[in-house]
Design a protein that fits this description.
By secondary structure, the protein is an alpha/beta fold. It is built from 19 helices and 25 strands. Strands 1, 2, 3, 4, 5, 6, 14, 15, 16, 17, 18 and 19 form a twelve-stranded mixed beta sheet that branches. It has a four-stranded mixed beta sheet with strand order 20-22-23-21.
Length: 554
């Protein structure tokens, strides 16, 4: 029986971070050490590596997951270890886990089994303080808004149109909608507000799309925090908060270097969720990785309809490079879930055939971008050889490369088949990348393409609030060029988590649209998605403890 994830991680033989950096050719002079096993890479390294050729970029995504996830991060880490074992200079580029889910139901996001990034408990909890810096910067701006209003409201804020909430990195549903300023007159102005989780903060998004400090400050300056009584946007720059926020984010902008259990370098930086944000690690970390390694394995959150789409349509244009191959992770349990929940099933089809339609749609989407695609079946102990062979045959019928991943239980050795399939995909001949939409498309055209092409909807509709916001955007020449960041359930291709499999005959309803002027994308909120998660009845926090070592974290 396998030991727990945290026990495996704590027993791992970890190398000094200087040795990990040396594998990439990064000298100690470019490192800012956080102990022996973590470091930040200083931006002075960029001029020395900028002229290097880019490595090959491999994106790991997934089908619409079960509540436990399909092991996408684990597979990405193990694939990196497998490529490293085969002698390729490899780097893994991942998001930093949010603390919220660690104490909720999902647990951490540092991989699992024999494919983890370490030190696991540090990465899952506080790491180098980046998320705390984002939280503090976001809340400083919120405090300056209310302070400005209290001291006379010179900018004429409309109190009903302040869109900048507060954030924290803990799941807490009771804070979604609150009243602030209660008490005495000196305690501020009473108004409605709320909290989002830090992963949904526009500051987090800006951190992940900025390429340097000047770009970071430019973006922070543009943040729309609310609207005045004449319906004109009020920005962070008008509040004179840009410099202070940038100062808080100075170190957070530097990518974090850690390692996998297999000794592969891992750049772990930025942590936006994909169901409510853009779900990708930072542009700057991926840029560094591409210049320092021959193969870079990155991931994007949840299913390919969320994370991968945003990686391709939001991040890649900023990165200046598109993936050389895409890995779609699925599992027998996910395919069975989608079969059981699918609204339409044909006669005589077994569960795997019916559930495979969800995976098939994700494969079609990646091929629509003209990207070489590999299906990785993440195997679990209850899977039978017959079931695995059935999925292999279904992939063969679709003409998509297939590999079994036994990475959780066997580490790099369990990823050799997958790594070989990925290498074949990376080196295959293909044409140019085909974007989903162009910046010249209107915001409504982009939303329609996302809903109908990626999600497979018949169409898209809007509430009156969303439609009014869309009209404003399409009158703004700059905002109308922005890409779309769709917030919706991760469990379905649709905006209804109950519509599993490959739903048909549905429409996506956008309830709210918000301009993220600093991040330079348009956030569209569909279905019942919330930006502050809640804890389950029995949260993981009840089982976490510490004596000499932390226990219960997974």
């Amino acid at each position: 029986m396998m030991e727990s994830d945290i026990t495996i991680a704590q027993k791992a033989a970890i190398k000094h971070i200087n040795d990990i950096a040396a594998q990439l050719g990064a000298g100690e002079e470019y490192l800012e050490l956080y102990g022996n096993y973590k470091a930040k890479i200083h931006p002075t390294i960029w001029p020395t590596i900028e002229g290097n050729s880019n490595g090959k970029l491999i994106l790991v995504t997934a089908t619409n997951p079960t509540s436990a996830g399909e092991g996408k991060t684990t597979v990405g880490i193990g694939l990196g270890d497998a490529l490293n074992r085969l002698g390729y200079k490899t780097c893994v580029a991942l998001r930093e886990p949010s603390i919220g889910p660690c104490f909720g139901i999902k647990g951490g996001a540092a991989g699992g089994g024999l494919a983890q990034v370490v030190p696991m408990e540090d990465i899952n909890l506080h790491f180098t303080g980046d998320i705390h810096a984002v939280t503090t910067a976001h809340n400083l701006l919120a405090a300056m808004i209310d302070n400005h209003i209290y001291h006379g409201n010179e900018l004429n804020f409309d109190l009903d149109q302040i869109v900048w909430k507060r954030v924290m990195d803990i799941n807490d549903r009771a804070l979604r909608n609150i009243l602030i300023g209660l008490g005495n007159k000196t305690d501020g102005v009473v108004r409605k507000s709320g909290f989002d989780i830090t992963a949904a903060s526009e500051i987090m998004a800006i951190l992940c799309v900025s390429v340097d400090m000047m770009d970071l400050k430019r973006r922070i300056d543009k943040i729309i925090v609310g609207y005045d009584v004449k319906d004109a946007p009020v920005t962070c720059g008008k509040l004179k908060a840009t410099g202070a926020l940038a100062a808080l984010l100075k170190d957070a902008l530097k990518p974090n270097l850690a390692q996998t259990i297999g000794g592969t370098p891992a750049l772990i930086h930025g942590g936006p969720f994909a169901n409510i944000a853009h779900g990708c690690n930072s542009v700057v970390a991926t840029k560094y990785a591409l210049k320092l390694a021959d193969y870079v394995v990155s991931e994007a959150g949840f299913g390919a309809d969320l994370g991968a789409e945003k990686f391709l349509d939001i991040k890649c244009p900023l990165l200046g490079k598109y993936p050389d191959a895409v890995v779609i992770v699925s599992s027998i349990r996910a395919l069975k879930l989608h079969a059981a929940g699918a609204s339409v099933q044909g006669e005589g089809r077994d569960d795997l055939t019916s559930g495979f339609e969800n995976l098939q749609k994700h494969v079609e989407n990646m091929r629509r971008y003209n990207l070489p695609t590999v299906v990785a079946l993440n195997v679990f102990s209850g899977d039978t050889p017959e079931e695995i062979e059935r999925v292999r045959n279904l992939c063969a019928v679709q003409g998509v490369k297939f590999a079994v991943s036994a990475i959780w239980s066997h580490g790099a050795a369990g990823g050799i088949e997958l790594s070989q399939a990925v290498l074949e995909a990376v080196n295959s001949n293909r044409g140019e990348f085909v974007p989903l939409y162009n910046s010249a498309d209107t915001a409504s055209e982009k939303l329609h393409k996302l809903a109908t092409v990626i999600c497979g909807a018949d169409g898209i509709s809007y509430t009156a609030e969303a439609e009014n916001a869309l009209k404003k955007i399409e009158k703004d020449p700059e905002a109308n060029k922005y890409p779309i960041c769709m917030a919706k359930t991760q469990y379905s291709l649709s905006d209804d988590k109950k519509l599993l499999g490959r739903p048909r005959g549905f429409s996506i309803t956008v309830k709210k649209i918000k301009i993220m002027a600093g991040a330079e994308f348009i956030a569209a909120y569909a279905g019942d998605v919330v930006t502050m998660p809640g804890l389950p009845k029995c949260p993981t926090a009840e089982f976490i403890d510490v004596d000499e070592k932390i226990t219960g974290l997974f």
